[in-house]
Automatic annotation (TrEMBL):
Protein name: Guanine nucleotide-binding protein-like 1
Chloroplast is among the record's keywords: no
Biased composition (Acidic residues): 548-562
Composition bias, Basic residues: 1-22
Species per Swiss-Prot/TrEMBL record: Myripristis murdjan (pinecone soldierfish)
Length: 596
């Protein structure tokens, strides 16, 4: 009988790995599956911080703590899984579809198109309960009610028609607790696309069922031209007459000076110089009507306005301490909605909203210093905490929640609702962005075909050629020096993620417009409230007027570390070289004329 050949070391390692995967019950998401991909631009991004089941994809996995008492993944984002056929279809379209600029009407979005009333696009409600029920009985009833909600939602909407939305019941429970604890709700939205993040069902539930008031905070107001900010305020007031609306920005007077700048230029005065806290105070004074003493809050805003903090990362000395309460599960699960508003003379403000709308930044600005970590990753805030702003005012920070809607998924990604790092196919979103922004003049791209045929020809020839989303990603990868590790080809996947992050951060700005904006553009540009909005933004009439010529090689040294070139193009610049960076007039990016 012939003897069997002994296994080689490579075969032994492979068998051992297969046994481990079978034991773990996870085949295809381990490190070996990622290393086996031949090209980064062709693979799907099922990275190590994602977990996929047959229907639901769980993302943003966090490592467990050493003590093991708390589960950091309890409030992970749970989104519906897309089929492989759908992903491949969009990838093929990104290679073939020629990008065409859309009309101004395409930029206008009506809230009824995003949340049509006949589609049942509500949100799960907490079922009724009583103190005779045990904790386990309550949890089972909530789970049953949530399954019924999902069944009804999918029965009214055919597959593929709904956007990404939260499937994690634990996160919805956090929303229930915050709504129950709060006296006034601060619903925070991004001014660039407010109708995407303002579910009418939530507003009607708060004002109708809970009998509480909502203050809509239009955050990141410095990223929009003043006429558009005013147009959105009037549109939302016409749709919801009793809604109080305020504008807010944590970065007044700090626009992006370059496309590749990592952050808006950090203000030397720290978080206390935000624009809009006084407007939130006035709205709360109007709601409380003297039932809560808000004098201490007003005095705090006045103190913060004159405070000078040269280094915001330096520990604050001589300022009021902030009391932070971590809410335990036991305290929240068996708590009944309080019918008494302003209990013990304290106003409780609940901060809720979609991921990436800037809830944590609003809280830091209201407090006057950093008390909440800020991240552009959706789902960064895992559970809610309460912060005592003054002895009579406290804030509740709720994790970002994605409500079901009929919004285009590509637009949803550009709004920062879905983590870019977890996208299986980012190219269609890049195409959606490029059709709505003058990407060639902003990014200074050179068509990939010119790289091979006419290497000496500049951008002039690129404007005459047809572009696809794939071409844009390949040209951006060539410009930035993004190469795959094995074959040194242009890393289009990394380039696509880079472009999407530029859009989410506001460096390549895409703003939606309310219905009829194009027809009334002249009216909004001459509106009497323009000076007030410009003062809030920290701008003057001369800001943005002087567009400097964009240098092809003059890129900012403050670009994100993950977007630094691998071959040395991302070297830090000296201070005297900063002025030659790639500058962009944000009004031109938006196809808006600057307000005189």
């Amino acid at each position: 009988m012939p003897r069997k050949k002994p296994f080689s070391n490579k075969q032994k390692k492979k068998q051992l790995q297969v046994k481990r995967e079978r034991k773990r019950g996870d085949t295809g998401s381990g490190p070996s599956s990622r290393n086996a991909s031949v090209e980064r631009g062709e693979r799907q991004s099922d990275t190590s911080d994602s977990e996929t089941t047959d229907i639901i994809r769980r993302i943003n996995q966090q490592p467990f703590s050493k003590d093991g008492r708390h589960d950091p993944n309890r409030f992970r984002l749970h989104f519906e899984k897309e089929s492989k056929e759908e992903v491949e279809k969009r990838k093929k379209m990104a290679r073939e579809k020629i990008l065409q600029p859309v009309s101004d009407k395409e930029h206008e979005v009506d809230i009824s198109d995003i949340y049509p009333t006949e589609k049942g696009l509500g949100f799960p409600r907490r079922p009724s309960w009583n103190y005779e029920m045990s904790r386990e009985q309550l949890l089972r009833k909530e789970e049953k009610s949530y399954r019924e909600y999902l069944d009804d939602l999918h029965s009214r909407n055919p597959p593929g028609s709904l956007s990404h939305f939260e499937h994690n019941l634990e996160t919805w429970r956090q929303l229930w607790r915050v709504l129950e604890m709060s006296d006034v709700i601060l619903l925070i939205v991004d001014i660039r696309h407010p109708v995407l993040q303002f579910p009418p069902s939530l507003y009607h539930y708060i004002t109708g069922d809970l009998q509480k008031q909502v203050v809509l905070v239009l955050n990141k107001a410095d990223l929009c031209p003043p006429p558009l900010v005013i147009a959105w305020k009037h549109y939302l007031a016409s749709q919801f007459p009793h809604l109080l609306t305020v504008c807010f920005t944590s970065h007044p007077g700090q626009p992006y000076s370059t496309v590749l700048q990592k952050k808006r230029m950090r203000r030397k005065a720290g978080w206390s110089q935000a624009g809009g806290p006084i407007d939130i105070l006035k709205a709360c004074q109007e709601i409380t009507a003297g039932r809560v003493d808000l004098t201490s809050w007003e005095q705090k805003i006045q103190r913060d306005a004159v405070a000078e903090r040269p280094d915001e990362d330096r520990p604050d000395e001589g300022v009021d301490s902030v009391l932070v309460e971590h809410q335990s599960d036991a305290a929240m699960e068996m708590s009944n909605p309080s019918q008494e508003l302003y209990k013990d003379g304290v106003l409780t403000l609940g901060c809720i909203g979609f991921p990436n709308v800037g809830k944590s930044s609003v809280i830091n600005s209201l407090v006057g210093r950093k008390v909440v970590s800020v991240s552009r990753t959706p789902g960064h805030t895992k559970y809610f905490q309460t912060y005592y702003l003054t002895p009579t005012v406290k804030l509740c920070d709720c994790p970002g929640l994605v409500f079901p809607s009929r919004v285009n998924k590509q637009l949803q990604i550009l709004a920062g609702i879905y983590p870019v790092s977890q996208l299986q196919e980012p190219y269609s979103s890049v195409g959606y962005l490029c059709e709505r922004t003058p990407f060639l003049s902003v990014l200074k791209l050179k068509h990939p075909s010119l790289e091979e045929n006419q290497p000496q020809q500049g951008q002039e020839g690129s404007e005459e050629l047809s572009w696809t989303a794939w071409d844009v990603c390949e040209a951006w990868a060539e410009r930035r020096g993004y190469k795959t590790a094995k074959a040194a080809r242009n890393d289009v996947y990394r380039a696509a993620n880079s472009l999407l992050r530029l859009a989410i951060d506001g460096r390549l700005c895409l703003c939606l417009r309310p219905p009829g904006y194009s027809c009334l553009k002249g009216h909004w540009e001459n509106h009497p409230d323009i000076p007030e909005i410009m003062a809030l933004q920290g701008r003057t009439e001369d800001d943005g007027a002087g567009d400097r010529d964009e240098d092809e090689d003059g890129e900012s040294s403050t670009e994100p570390e993950e977007e630094r070139d691998r071959d040395g193009f991302g070297r830090p610049k000296r201070r005297d070289e900063m002025s030659s960076g790639l500058t962009v007039n944000m009004y031109n990016v938006l196809r808006e004329n600057e307000c005189e």
